């Protein structure tokens, strides 16, 4: 992968410079204009584990039952409808949500091109993501799930695996226990890079972070079409899956 692609666009460089200020559960906010007119926008990192659903911030949109980090299923009115979602094997209920798009419209109204890109859709560190909350039977937030969104364009998906670097930095690069999985039959690198890794870290006595990264071509996928010799588009898998879960005390 060419360095120029990894370093662009500019917001990823800006996000990297903010990592030193990121603490567990602390949001990373973009700079507001001097007049303070920019609307506020909540992110997944603003959700505090251990909070009851009645006390969770209601600044998100499109609540729905989650599908294990995938697209939404049955729509919900808000967090309090969590019990309508079938429990996972862990017993937790997954509630999908999206970031409010008011900030994107604000940027468009003010002709702020960089901010239009930054605040379009649901993203973290500039990467499109699917976000969900994991809620127990008692209505307490026990975890959050962040999965890179595979619906982006080819270039965005090609760089999706880089999200792991930002998440590593956010929660500290040390003390992760990682397992690098070998290629299965037919799995090959993408532009010389092959990643199939599962990592885990104990944040504290009650909280565990898990991070899975994949960047590879699966059986039948190829950079070039065998018949025409032309370069293919989208024939690869590049994704990150992150969960932060706190047990009940």
Descriptive notes:
It is built from six helices and nine strands; from the N terminus they run ααββααβββααββββ. With 249 residues, it is α+β, with helices and mostly antiparallel strands. It has one domain (3-246). Strands 1, 2, 3, 4, 5, 6, 7, 8 and 9 form a nine-stranded antiparallel β-sheet that branches.
Quick recap:
The chain contains 6 helices and 9 strands. By secondary structure, the protein is α+β, with helices and mostly antiparallel strands.
Number of strands: 9
Q: What would the average pLDDT be, to the nearest integer?
A: 83
Rg measurement, Å: 19 Å
Coarse shape: globular
Topology:
Elements: H1 3-7, H2 10-18, E1 60-65, E2 93-99, H3 102-109, H4 113-118, E3 123-124, E4 127-135, E5 141-148, H5 154-158, H6 163-170, E6 177-180, E7 195-202, E8 207-216, E9 237-246
Antiparallel strand pairs: 1-2, 2-4, 3-4, 4-5, 5-9, 6-7, 7-8, 8-9
Which tags fit this structure?
249 residues, alpha+beta, nine-stranded antiparallel beta sheet, 9 strands, 16% helix, disordered N terminus
């Amino acid at each position: 992968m060419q360095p120029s692609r990894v370093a662009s666009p500019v917001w990823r460089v800006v996000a990297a410079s903010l990592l030193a200020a990121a603490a567990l559960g602390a949001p990373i906010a973009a700079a507001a204009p001097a007049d303070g007119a920019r609307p506020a926008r909540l992110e997944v990192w603003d959700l505090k584990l251990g909070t009851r659903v009645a006390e969770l911030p209601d600044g998100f949109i499109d609540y729905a039952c989650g599908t294990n980090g995938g697209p939404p299923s049955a729509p919900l009115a808000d967090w309090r409808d969590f019990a309508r979602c079938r429990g996972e094997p862990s017993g937790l209920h997954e509630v999908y949500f999206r970031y409010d798009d008011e900030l994107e419209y604000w940027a468009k109204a003010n002709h702020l091109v960089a901010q239009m890109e930054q605040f379009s859709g649901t993203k973290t560190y500039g990467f499109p993501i699917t976000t969900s909350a994991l809620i127990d039977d008692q209505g307490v937030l026990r975890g959050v799930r962040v999965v890179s969104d595979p619906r982006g364009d080819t270039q965005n998906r090609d760089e999706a695996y880089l999200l792991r670097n930002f998440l590593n930095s956010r929660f500290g690069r040390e003390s992760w226990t990682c397992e690098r999985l070998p290629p299965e039959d037919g799995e090959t690198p993408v532009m010389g890079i092959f990643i199939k890794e599962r990592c885990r870290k104990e944040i504290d006595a009650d909280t565990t972070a898990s991070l899975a990264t994949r960047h590879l071509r699966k059986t039948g996928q190829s950079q070039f079409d065998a018949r025409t010799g032309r370069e293919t588009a989208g024939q690869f898998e590049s994704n990150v899956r992150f969960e932060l879960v706190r047990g009940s005390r």
